[in-house]
């Protein structure tokens, strides 16, 4: 979203190209007509959704899904578009954004700007992890009634949005909390530590450009760098970086997702 905002905010959309009828769901039939000629007023993020606000009270909502990329460049200077480039936005000053999504798990929709939070995909979402409301006491109260493993609870977007599998593993490790612990067993001290770890890790990850494990890249096409800072994720069998060679990182599966942790640090 930050790269998209830098290139598009304050610009007028000159041309919209829709190269297929759908991704996960169909594109709005009037997407091109409602965006062309409109000024890009501002950007907003909710969970993993990007909201581009344009004139006439309209917002374009975008989610990249599992494999989507939003690649920025200049009109007329790009190489041959990928066969998986499904949507292109171009501004009057020559900025170009191409949505590339091989698996088509992403989505694009239009919503009235003043009704963004009422959209069916946003209305049931939980707290933003980087907001001021994300405190230890709040996290403790949120988990008190949850009879599920803490790892599973943290991935529940109805409770906390935007936390992916990588960052939950890393936050639990930093807070010395075993991933199979019941969420309701979290102490106030542990909740304080976990809330701080979540915010620190997300801040570090954003500054590093995210984690590029397979096909994720930033808006300028470069890979992220936070994967080089992982302490447990993807390191099964390797020595724990805090304990030394005596304690390897373990891997288990929870709710169909891989969980990485240290049996010594997270007892």
From TrEMBL:
Keywords: DNA damage, DNA repair, DNA-binding, Glycosidase, Hydrolase, Lyase, Metal-binding, Multifunctional enzyme, Zinc, Zinc-finger
SMART domains: Fapy_DNA_glyco (SM00898), H2TH (SM01232)
Reaction equation(s) it catalyzes: Hydrolysis of DNA containing ring-opened 7-methylguanine residues, releasing 2,6-diamino-4-hydroxy-5-(N-methyl)formamidopyrimidine; 2'-deoxyribonucleotide-(2'-deoxyribose 5'-phosphate)-2'-deoxyribonucleotide-DNA = a 3'-end 2'-deoxyribonucleotide-(2,3-dehydro-2,3-deoxyribose 5'-phosphate)-DNA + a 5'-end 5'-phospho-2'-deoxyribonucleoside-DNA + H(+)
Domain of life assignment: Bacteria
SUPFAM superfamilies given in the database record: Glucocorticoid receptor-like (DNA-binding domain), N-terminal domain of MutM-like DNA repair proteins, S13-like H2TH domain
Residue ranges of domain Formamidopyrimidine-DNA glycosylase catalytic in the record: 1-106
EC code(s) of this entry: 3.2.2.23, 4.2.99.18
InterPro entries: FPG_cat (IPR012319), FPG_Glyclase (IPR020629), FPG_N (IPR035937), H2TH_FPG (IPR015886), Ribosomal_uS13-like_H2TH (IPR010979), Znf_DNA_glyclase/AP_lyase (IPR000214)
Required cofactor names: Zn(2+)
FPG-type domain: residues covered: 231-267
Protein family membership: Belongs to the FPG family.
Subunit structure: Monomer.
Entry-linked NCBIfam families: fpg, PRK01103.1
Name by which UniProt lists this protein: Formamidopyrimidine-DNA glycosylase
UniProt source species: Gluconobacter japonicus
């Amino acid at each position: 979203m930050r790269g998209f905002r830098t290139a598009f905010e304050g610009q007028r959309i000159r041309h919209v190209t829709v190269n297929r009828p759908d991704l996960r769901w169909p594109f709005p039939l009037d997407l091109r007509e409602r965006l062309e000629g409109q000024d890009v007023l501002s950007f907003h993020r909710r969970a993993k959704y990007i909201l581009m606000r344009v004139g006439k009270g309209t917002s374009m909502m975008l989610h990249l899904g599992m494999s989507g990329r939003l690649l920025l460049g200049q009109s007329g200077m790009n190489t041959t578009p990928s066969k998986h480039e499904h949507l292109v936005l171009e501004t009057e000053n020559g900025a170009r954004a191409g949505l590339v999504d091989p698996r088509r798990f992403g989505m694009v929709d239009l919503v009235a700007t003043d009704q963004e939070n009422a959209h069916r995909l946003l209305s049931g979402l939980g707290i933003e992890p980087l907001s001021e409301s994300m405190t230890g006491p709040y996290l403790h109260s949120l988990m008190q009634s949850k009879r599920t493993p803490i790892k599973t609870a943290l991935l529940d977007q109805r409770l906390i949005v935007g936390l992916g599998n990588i960052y939950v593993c890393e936050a639990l490790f930093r807070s010395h909390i075993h991933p199979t612990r019941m969420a309701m067993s979290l102490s106030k001290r542990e909740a304080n530590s976990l809330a701080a770890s979540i915010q620190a890790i997300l801040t570090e990850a954003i500054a590093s450009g995210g984690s590029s494990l397979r096909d994720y890249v930033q808006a300028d096409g470069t890979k992220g760098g936070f994967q080089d800072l992982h302490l447990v994720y993807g390191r099964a069998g390797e020595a724990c970086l805090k304990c030394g060679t005596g304690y390897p990182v373990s891997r288990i599966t929870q709710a169909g997702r891989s969980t990485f942790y240290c049996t010594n640090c997270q007892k």
